[in-house]
Structure formats: C-alpha cells, structure tokens
Amino acid sequence: MAFCPFCKQEINEVTAVYREVRHVEVTAKVRLDPTNHNLSYKEEEIETLEVVDVEGDEEFSCPKCRETLPLNSDKLELFLEGKLLLVKESEVKVKDDFALFEGRVYKIRDRLEDLLFLEVLSDEVVEAILAANLF
Questions:
Q1: C-alpha–C-alpha distance, residues 4 and 69, integer Å
Q2: Domain boundaries, the chain
Q3: How far apart are CA 75 and CA 99, in angstroms?
Q4: Which residue of 38, 76, 92, 129 could cross-link 101, Cys pair, CB 3.0 to 4.6 Å?
Q5: 41 or 126, higher pLDDT
Q6: 9-14: which pairs have CB atoms within 8 A and are 24 or more residues apart?
Q7: 44-59: b or e for each residue (b if 16 or more CB lie within 10 Å)?
Q8: Mean pLDDT for the stretch of residues 37-43
C-alpha cells in the first residue's frame, strides 16, 4: 500500500491531471443577422479527429492533501503497489545507496530535493545483512 510523503495518509489511488491536444471538426449553422449584419454560429456537431496526448505533461497528486507527487507514469505503478516509497530524507538514516526506514532497509533509487525514492528489497536475507552491516 502507498503512503503520501506529505500527509502520511495511506492511499490506493492518486489524482491525475493531464493535458491533451485535440484536432476536431466542427459542423455549425452560420446565419447573418439582417439587422446588425453580424454572423452567428450555432455548433451542431463536434467530431474528434485525432487526440495527441502530450507525453510528460501528467501531474499526479495525493487525493487527500492534494500535494503534487513527483512521479511519472513508470514510477506510479510501483508506488501504488507499495514497491516504491516516497520519503523525506530527514525521516531515514542514509548510508551509501541504502536507507533505513521504519526498521527496514531500502535501496535509494532516486532523489528529488528532500525526497528519496526508496525501492523495496525483494530478498529478506540481503536486507538483513545490509541492515547488520550498514546501520
């Protein structure tokens, strides 16, 4: 299960905002007003011809505190599965490329300002050896 690094609440979904560029075809009735000689448009049909998704323009946020989570779509799945944690560096002990957080050892996968991206170690024996030797 995932936890927001800002409000510390357990979350199983995020709010996604993304922008699309669309090419559309609009069918409209156009009339000329005889009194003021202005054209008026009345749209009757809008057909989307093509949707171009702007890659890298997604923004994910916590549904509870609404803080922006620094994730891309590749990291999002791991985060929601609980295999990738976002943790403030001040909350962990760091040694080389590893971090001790809540009694467990994690591999530091990335850093962004004061946040660490911690990857869950899949082997409990390796985790125990690292914990004993590093911390």
A1: 8
A2: 1-19+54-81, 23-49, 83-135
A3: 19
A4: 92
A5: 41
A6: 9/62, 9/64, 9/65, 11/62, 11/63, 11/64, 12/80, 13/63, 13/80, 14/60, 14/61, 14/62, 14/63, 14/69, 14/71, 14/76, 14/80
A7: eeeeeeeeeeeeeeee
A8: 91
CB-CB contact of 96 with 135 (8 Å): no
pLDDT in tens, 62-98: 999 999 999 998 899 999 999 999 999 999 999 999 9
In 1-135, which residue ranges form alpha helices assigned H by DSSP? 73-81, 124-134
pLDDT of 5: 97
Integer Cα distance of 80 and 2 in angstroms:
5
> What residues are paired with 98 via a beta bridge?
95, 107
- pLDDT on residue 56: 58
């993304």: which residue's tokens? Answer: 18
Confidence (pLDDT) at 134: 67
Query: Alpha-carbon distance 101 to 84, whole Å?
Result: 13
Torsion of CA 69, 74, 79, 84, to 10 degrees: -110
